[in-house]
Design brief:
heterodimer, A: Cytochrome Bc1 Complex, Chain D, domain 2, globular, B: mainly alpha, Cytochrome Bc1 Complex, Chain D, domain 2, SoxAX cytochrome complex subunit A (chain A), periplasm (chain A), Cyt_c-like_dom (chain A)
């Protein structure tokens, strides 16, 4: 009798579990909700002086980086004796639209990779060249050069299918309060854009201009360097640049900016 | 029961012990000063002020997240206080607040830094507006209500974007140089309150 009851209970639980699995498995995840439905580029929050520098390629200091990136593109590096151009030829054609699609899911790696990481994958796995440090001058030069090939194209990352769990983790990071100041990213960039934080006019924190020439740093910075700054500012413990957490966050940020034109290399205060 | 006073379980880790060994390394200090971000909330003052802290951050950098989280220092014991009707009626200390000192603390980036989010009736190169102007705030609130707003305004509005200045608990991934410490000392809360009470 008791054994029969246990059997029935077990079967019931199994059926319930199967039902749950069925309810969860099929069909694409629902389209996530965008808090800011019509995003605005950070350029809308920059001063006219800053924009004048961005809008003139001869004045924009980031073009020094772009030139360095172009040279590196054509220059053999690593034990295989190849350059980027050996495989990808003319970047203006082969890299057009790439920045707009990144970060992107990389099937071989089974995870989302940033543009920086993809460059390093080619260097280490195809060229026999060492990895470049995230936010190093060489890597920022390369991503500035590659990014420029997508200038004006709308941000268009693919968060579907296997990419989705990484997106979800990025979204969660974005919406989690952190640091001694106990703020979410959205505390500043969703609740308060257009308002001032002392001397800073808060933008929506869009990523479409990166890598960017930061006047304060007097150099081109990568997105994740900026993100470390934002986490530090709320007295939070910032993840490392190139970490999975920041990669997922960068992926989420790219989707937040979906539709905005790529502005690489932008100029910011 | 004041949630600020419940004990926090924190372990002193390897990283911290190594940091103690490193203390006094001027090179590390210079490295951090050169690389530390110093915009928005502005840590510049805090960093300049304390070599000890600087070394602590320098030590933190090479260690992994997991180590960093377990290695935070013992949380500071907060002065007990009682919240009654969305106010803290009794002062946190016996020494009356000093309004002049309070005004300085309200401007100091490493302390109150209230001016980052609030307009104050004084001259400062830049004033923020995430929160309402504080002019006339003493007419709008009782002293005890203002004290709670400084100590832990989230007890009034859990969704507030204003930081809790006298709380060490329930926070997520605090930078290790600040972990376990409140943003202001008890006396500093009283000083800033004394300054707010001059804003009529």
């Amino acid at each position: 009798m008791a054994r029969r009851a246990a059997f029935l209970a077990g079967a019931g639980a199994a059926a319930l579990a199967a039902g749950l699995a069925l309810a969860q498995a099929p069909g694409p995840a629902p389209e996530p909700h965008r808090t800011i439905t019509s995003p605005e580029s950070g350029r809308n929050y920059a001063t006219p002086e800053t924009l004048a520098i961005q809008d003139d390629d001869f004045q924009n200091p980031a073009f020094l980086w772009v030139e360095e990136g172009e040279q590196a593109w054509n220059h053999p590096a690593g034990s295989a004796g190849q350059s980027c151009a050996s495989c990808h030829q003319d970047a203006t054609a082969s890299m057009r639209g790439v920045r707009a699609r990144y970060p992107a899911y990389n099937a071989a790696k089974g995870r989302v990779v940033t543009l920086e990481q993809q460059v390093n994958i080619c260097r280490t796995e195809r060229m026999g060249a060492p990895e470049l440090r995230i936010d190093s001058r060489e890597l920022n030069a390369m991503t500035a050069f590659i990014g420029l090939q997508s200038r004006g194209m709308p941000m268009n990352v693919d968060i579907s299918g296997p990419a989705r769990p990484f997106f979800d983790r990025g979204e969660e990071f974005y919406n989690t309060r952190r640091g001694q100041l106990d703020m979410r990213c959205g505390s500043c960039h969703e609740d308060n854009y257009g308002r001032s934080l002392r001397a800073d006019l808060l933008s929506q924190g869009m990523s479409n201009g990166f890598p960017t020439y930061r006047l304060k740093e007097q150099r081109v910075i990568s997105l994740q360097f900026r993100l470390q700054g934002c986490v530090n500012d709320v007295r939070g413990e910032p993840p490392a640049m190139g970490s999975e957490e920041f990669t997922n966050l960068e992926f989420y940020l790219a989707w937040r900016a979906q539709g905005l034109p790529v502005e690489t290399p932008s100029v910011r205060r | 029961m004041s949630r600020a006073n419940a004990p926090l379980r924190v372990r002193r880790g390897v990283a911290e012990r190594r940091c103690i060994v490193m203390r006094g390394l001027g090179a590390a200090a210079r490295f951090v000063l050169a690389t530390a971000p110093r915009d928005v909330i502005g840590e510049e003052g805090a960093l300049r002020g304390s070599l000890l802290l600087v070394v602590a951050i320098a030590c933190a950098a090479p260690f992994t997240e997991a180590v960093a989280q377990t290695a935070a220092r013992e949380p500071v014991r907060l002065v007990p206080f009682e919240v009654v009707d969305q106010a803290i009626p009794r002062p946190l200390t016996d020494t009356p607040g000093n309004a002049e000192r309070g005004q300085r603390l309200a401007l100091d980036r490493s302390k109150g830094n209230c001016v980052t989010c609030h307009e104050l009736p004084l001259s400062a190169d830049f004033q923020g507006n995430l929160g309402p102007p504080l002019t006339g705030v003493a007419d709008r609130y009782e002293p005890g209500e203002l004290r709670l707003r400084i100590v832990d305004t989230k007890r009034i509005n859990p969704d507030s974007n204003m930081p809790s200045y006298y709380r060490v608990e329930g926070l997520n991934r605090v930078r290790r140089d600040w972990a376990g410490r409140p943003m202001l000392e008890a006396q500093e809360v009283e000083d800033i309150l004394a300054y707010l009470l001059t804003l009529r």
